[in-house]
Amino acid sequence: MNCLRFNIDIANEDYLSYYSGHAQSISVQTEDGKQIEFAAMHLREFVSHSGVQGYFELCFDAQNRFKSIRRID
Question: Mind listing the pLDDT tens digit for each residue in 9-36?
Fold first, then answer.
């Protein structure tokens, strides 16, 4: 399994376009400098009244399909 880590800070107002379906993917830069894109729906469980903030680990299987995402404290 391949895992990548990144920081994200999306204000609540900005995340509304993802949550409502107007924008479907999020692009971030990983800690090792790679640019990745993934479905915004994977962040829904992490949305708070202030948006989505934190340090995350996104994991993929051998075929580069989404496996899991978790916030790292």
Answer: 999 888 777 767 677 889 999 999 999 9
**Taking the C-alpha atoms of 40, 6, 53 and 12 in order, what is their torsion angle to the nearest 10 degrees?**
-30
38 φψ region: left (φ > 0), alpha (ψ -120 to 50), beta (else): beta
pTM of the model as a whole: 0.85
Name the H helices within 1-73.
12-19
Strand 51-60 vs strand 35-39: parallel, antiparallel, or unpaired? unpaired
Domain residue ranges in the chain: 2-72
| Second CATH level (architecture) for the domain 2-72 | Beta Barrel (2.40)
